[in-house]
Amino acid sequence: MSNNQLYRGSLTTIIMRLLEKEGKMYGYEITQKVKEITEGKIDIKEGALYPSLHKLQAAGHLKVDAKKVDNRIRKYYSLTPQGQKETIHMLAELKEYIENMQAIMNPKIAY
Question: Helix, strand, or coil here: 110?
């Protein structure tokens, strides 16, 4: 299993955490920020990003503001109040998952 397969399962959490930190971002900006943060180790493809953004919007977690930039419409995504609450919940679940994986990978041996 490649790292990209692992990250795909976390794409929603990645998107929501970035938006929590940055406020609002457009799709390409999200992909580039992830590349920057991970030093190129995670490359989010548009085919994965936009369906996730649309699902989050449909669930009421994201709002979209369209702005004209250089004769093109650019969609900026940001968290709704419901999305902010869901982000907190998702990050707590991720933290618990990571702790459980660490316990499995490095079990404490009782003597």
Answer: coil
